[in-house]
Amino acid sequence: MIVISISLFIIGVEFRLLKLTYFYEWEIISLNSIEVIIRVLLDYKSLLFMGLVIFISSLVILYRNTYIFGDINIDRFVILVLMFVLSIIFLIIRPNLIRILLGWDGLGLVSYCLVIYYQNVSSYRAGILTALRNRVGDVALLIRIAWIVYVGGWNYIFYLDNKRLEMYIITIIVILAAITKRAQIPFSSWLPAAIAAPTPVSALVHSSTLVTAGVYLLIRFYELIDLIGFKSFVFFIGCLTIFIAGVGANLEFDLKKVIAISTLRQLGLIITTIGIGFPELAFFHLLTHAIFKALLFLCAGVIIHNLNNLQDVRGIGCLVNQMPFTSICFNISNLALCGMPFLAGFYSKDLILETYLIRNWNLLMFLLIFISTGLTVRYTFRLIYYTIRGDFNYFVIHSLGDDEWGIIYPIIIITLISIVGGRIIRWIILESPTIICLGNWEKFLVMGVRLIGGVLGYELSRIEDFTRWILFKNYKVTNFLGSIWYIPYLSTHFVNVFFLNIGLFYHKNFDGGWMEELGGQGLYNYFKEKSIQIQFFQLRNFKVYLISFFLWVILLFIVIYFYLNSL
Q1: Out of 1-5, 56-60, 392-396, least confident range
Q2: Chain centroid to CA 456: how far?
Q3: Is the pTM higher than 0.70?
Q4: Is 357 exposed, middle or buried (0-12, 13-18, 19+ CB in 10 A)?
Q5: Nearest alpha-carbon partner for 43 in 355, 429, 324, 412
Q6: What domain range includes position 555?
Q7: Most buried pick, 78, 258, 475, 476, via CB within 10 A?
Q8: Rounded to an integer, what distance in angstroms lies between the CA atom of residue 480 and that of residue 464?
Q9: Which domain-ending residue is among 431, 464, 485?
Q10: What pLDDT, on a 0 to 100 scale, did the predictor assign at position 287?
């Protein structure tokens, strides 16, 4: 798989340099007027994306040998990962909406199987939430398939410059499907819940497969979104998402959930980049984010694995003494997430933030973006503090280390790519050096926000409880902000509580009430009582017969007495 991914990457570079796009049509069968044709779209975006997905998948399969060693279902895990990769490839290379649905539904089905891999109650609930949230996007894709028939066919690539009424409806449905798959507001509840899957799966799902399917579709449909005029709506959804996710991650203590919410924030950043009119830059950040986010999850998996499945960051501390290599790689990925020079995330995030400054957006959007950037650095340095400077609060006697080379090898590879990959991908995607002219304060604002966020993150992590007492005296406010503004509750309990209460009322008053008393349960109790009475006589034969004999004798004497008196 590594060889295939490197080959696809080299071919993608060639396609980018030569500006090639291949559109293949393969006619499988033709019967009268019926034709079955497979169409494949190959350009530098699809080739680079496929190469990256296959590369991360190969590292996950190598990583799983040690991480879930001894699992009797290890072959099933590998098969599910390969099916996951196959589904995203179907989604990438097919310009036909019918065949995109095959990859889209494949991602949803396999993701459900991976989320419930551990087969417990929490995994089952997370899997159901993930599947049902993604069903909205599947329904939107089906509606889009039905509507695109009006413009002549299911190959969307031929109709991106069409401004008919049907294309307005198709564009709205595309955006709905994309924000569902990308877990944007108000469909953000399933992404933190998906951490119930094994950590290697999270490294694959949250970096380059499931969550990237929606944005890849938006990039492909960008010409239509720009033509119809829905970029502002996409930009607003992305800004709202990154702000809510940034606040929520700063109040979360689950290590995997913090990383998952940071994924939600990065997805919102990519969506806003599409909204301001730079799909190439969004694709650039999509690739760099996949690299350092996969590294972040792999390092988190090593920490959780060595700490006997502990995920609370308050019990993790001073790991640099026991796990120096993992701590270094973990912090490299955290710094890349912040966009610190000169790691992978810097080349895309710095360019995106500077691009925001030269666009004509209102003050509210400006504040949302840069405050959210500061919040990102804040929770990132909070994680760094807990893993390096904090106290180890889990074991009294502990034995940690970096001696499991089956886990270390993938981390070494992807760490090197996280350091140099951003610059290499920038050379490939951006044809010429990008120069953005800004004023002094605007130029220093991009780095200043990160530095301020980092300092606040470090300082506030040392007095976490005190600041929570000052800022949020009422626990409900903290609960509201930490739970991503109650979106998980609104998308689960709020939706079904009315129908569940109606069902409970009718069950108590009809099925479990009068209908049961007068129906099946009542008849059962009546016949049970009569059966007990009959059985009473049957099980006491001698006593019953003796009493019956005396009753007959007494009755006979009474009859004779009345008869003689009558004479």
Answers
A1: 392-396
A2: 28
A3: yes
A4: middle
A5: 429
A6: 497-566
A7: 258
A8: 18
A9: 485
A10: 85
